[in-house]
Amino acid sequence: MAVTKVYGQGAAAVQALRGVDLSIATGEMVAVMGPSGSGKSTVMNILGCLDAPTSGTYRFRGMDVGAMSRDERALLRRHALGFVFQGFNLLSRTSALENVELPLIYRRVHSSERRARALAALAAVGLRDWAQHTPAELSGGQQQRVAIARALVTEPAVVLADEPTGNLDSARGHEIMALLRSLNRARGITLVMITHEPEMAAYAGRVVHVLDGLVERDAATGGPSDAEQ
């Protein structure tokens, strides 16, 4: 059943999603595009278990997310999902290593294992030698790599990225997209991202265009040009 989402009640009600029917397979890399107010952020919030549909059903690995309590959704997020944000969301006074360790602290992982896993995640994004640097000592592209390492450190089934290149110049944006695509292919991580940039969306295998709370178009991409690979 197609998903709807309504915020507010009565005359103040806003129908953010009017009937979205979307299926994402394990291991896919999908870009969600649309103008401001189109409903793409609501789609991402529901996929990320940050919100529940007003009607319709969202199933994550067969589980009905809409039937879960807020605490159950929080557990699902903690154990199965990783998030990457436009603004990096790093703690400014702590090192890259400590930023990446943070999700493992919430899981009560022992300090020695936590450090080993965080260093491995930083190595996966090419920043093993920058582990002791604070965000202020890193470029924007490096900060986003730390944020990606933080999303990866829990070994999530799905990574959700909200405008991951929005605060970066074009060259750094292509670097981040190439990294995300390589992680998607090498690790089989399902990756869903919001972007307003067609050249970044081209890195995904599929682009979903959302307009006025509906899926306007859903199509495979041709991939980035050779110059961008």
From TrEMBL:
<dbReference type="InterPro" id="IPR027417">
    <property type="entry name" value="P-loop_NTPase"/>
</dbReference>
<dbReference type="InterPro" id="IPR017911">
    <property type="entry name" value="MacB-like_ATP-bd"/>
</dbReference>
<dbReference type="GO" id="GO:0022857">
    <property type="term" value="F:transmembrane transporter activity"/>
</dbReference>
<dbReference type="InterPro" id="IPR003593">
    <property type="entry name" value="AAA+_ATPase"/>
</dbReference>
<dbReference type="Pfam" id="PF00005">
    <property type="entry name" value="ABC_tran"/>
</dbReference>
<keyword id="KW-0547">Nucleotide-binding</keyword>
<dbReference type="GO" id="GO:0005524">
    <property type="term" value="F:ATP binding"/>
</dbReference>
<dbReference type="GO" id="GO:1902495">
    <property type="term" value="C:transmembrane transporter complex"/>
</dbReference>
<feature type="domain" description="ABC transporter">
    <location>
        <begin position="1"/>
        <end position="229"/>
    </location>
</feature>
<comment type="similarity">
    <text>Belongs to the ABC transporter superfamily. Macrolide exporter (TC 3.A.1.122) family.</text>
</comment>
<protein>
    <submittedName>
        <fullName>ABC transporter ATP-binding protein</fullName>
    </submittedName>
</protein>
<keyword id="KW-0813">Transport</keyword>
<dbReference type="GO" id="GO:0016887">
    <property type="term" value="F:ATP hydrolysis activity"/>
</dbReference>
<dbReference type="GO" id="GO:0005886">
    <property type="term" value="C:plasma membrane"/>
</dbReference>
<keyword id="KW-0067">ATP-binding</keyword>
<dbReference type="InterPro" id="IPR003439">
    <property type="entry name" value="ABC_transporter-like_ATP-bd"/>
</dbReference>
<dbReference type="InterPro" id="IPR015854">
    <property type="entry name" value="ABC_transpr_LolD-like"/>
</dbReference>
<dbReference type="InterPro" id="IPR017871">
    <property type="entry name" value="ABC_transporter-like_CS"/>
</dbReference>
